[in-house]
Amino acid sequence: MSVNVSIDTISHLRTTLTGSVIEPHDEGYDEARRVYGGFDRRPVAVIRPADVDDVVRVVIFARETGLELAVRGGGHSNAGHSVTEGGIVLDLQDLSEIEIDVEGRTAWAQGGATAGAYTAAAGAHELATGFGDTGSVGIGGITLGGGIGFLVRKHGLSIDNLLAAEIVTADGEVLVADESDHPDLFWAIRGGGGNFGVVTRLRFKLFPLPSVLGGILVLPATSEVVAGFIAEAEAAPDELSTIANVMPAPPMPFLPEELHGSMIVLAFLVHSGPEEEGDRVLAPFRALATPLADFIQRIPYSAMFPPEEHGEQPSAVASTMFMDGVDREMADTIISYLESSDASMRAIQLRVLGGAVTRVPADATAFAHRDSKIMVNVAAFYEGPEEKVVREAWVADFMAAIRQSDSGAYVNFLGDESPDRVRDAYPGETWNRLRAIKAQYDPDNFFHLNQNIPPAAG
Ligand SMILES: Cc1cc2nc3c(=O)[nH]c(=O)nc-3n(C[C@H](O)[C@H](O)[C@H](O)COP(=O)(O)OP(=O)(O)OC[C@H]3O[C@@H](n4cnc5c(N)ncnc54)[C@H](O)[C@@H]3O)c2cc1C
């Protein structure tokens, strides 16, 4: 696509929009182009639409000028997809209204709302929808890829509770997709990422959730504890979802200094079932070893998303896959790999799936990994290009050493990787179906700055 833009073109666009336009000469430009992960790219403008009409205008403008469009919700893409070099960033942060229908137990939220803001708004009515583990992640980005968080075993993925979405397509049309209108598009956006348009509003189911028994449990990471943790998480009722990070202990103020650097399991546990059952469900985890810290308590669900610092983020190399199980031998391998690196921070994150995730057929949404057992992320911090190479090799070796039979990948945790890895996210018929729907709604691959699904030929 050729680029057809002069200096005046953006100035003209500015006059047609209700929202704001931030160009390189404007104050706040560097802040506006900043995304999580430190991707240093210079768009010609960061545009913050005020309404859906603005979104339509920007989509049409980008098409007419040939400028690359990056769509940004919460700015947490691991691949840096929400900032572009020389193109336009469509930053949805001002589209962040959340309307809760308490009686009907549903919510409409605009595409730029964050998971934390949504959880707080719903929590005010003792209601919840599950997103991930981080409040600053955008509900648009996380939901379009799936959404695996603290309620995943009880209520499924975020997409399993998505009822409808308003989408601006590549030709500037505004559609509402749900089970009966544009059902093919509705299927595709439940896992297919930002390939099909700009999602300006999402409607979710809400569940009553007055409180949870939840928080952080820190255990020493022996192979017995790591394997035991996974076995207990697999055996637990669906009301319990866990995220276990195995890592060298950071210098956290609540850990004695002599433990800094020793291997720990830093786990998040959330029990969303009946209050009287919580302690019994968590007891086996607390019994794996004497906890080094135990911050699990009865809290409002929204307290699982504390305020975050938005300073400079360290650069990290990361990779993702699914595993079938973690026995003692595998736990040994995991710990040895973590011990073999001297990265300032390195970790493996293990999330046991199952429960409600498996009760949705694999072909019901574009997220097809319904039978995958454990989601895994491996990450290492680095500074500078030389260290990056070393950390990349370590992550790749680590992943190869622990790989089992599941060759899938969760699209939301992919970095800027090869097209083959995107294929891993969409196995078998899912890929062909996504490509056919892409050809229908975006035949020119206008929305390509994402984990890209090329339109089917012809
Ligand atoms: C610290 C951190 C914690 C995370 N925790 C979890 C977790 O617990 N569970 C989980 O499932 N994932 C998690 N993720 C992954 C996260 O879901 C993805 O990175 C997701 O894409 C981020 O969405 P975003 O809107 O914040 O990011 P952005 O970078 O703004 O968006 C990512 C991409 O999504 C698309 N997109 C975003 N919003 C829209 C929209 N409204 N319309 C159309 N396309 C859109 C665009 O293609 C965009 O490039 C985490 C990521 C990070 C960095």
From TrEMBL:
Cofactor names: FAD
Signal peptide: none
SUPFAM superfamilies: FAD-binding/transporter-associated domain-like, FAD-linked oxidases, C-terminal domain
Domain of life: Bacteria
Keyword terms, alphabetized: FAD, Flavoprotein, Oxidoreductase
The keyword Oxidoreductase appears for this protein: yes
Coiled-coil stretches: none
Name used for this protein in its record: FAD-binding oxidoreductase
Pfam families reported for this sequence: BBE, FAD_binding_4
Family assignment from sequence similarity: Belongs to the oxygen-dependent FAD-linked oxidoreductase family.
InterPro entries (alphabetical): BBE, FAD-bd_PCMH, FAD-bd_PCMH-like_sf, FAD-bd_PCMH_sub1, FAD-bd_PCMH_sub2, FAD-linked_Oxase-like_C, FAD-linked_Oxidoreductase, Oxid_FAD_bind_N
Keyword Hydrolase: no
Domain (FAD-binding PCMH-type): residue spans on this chain: 39-209
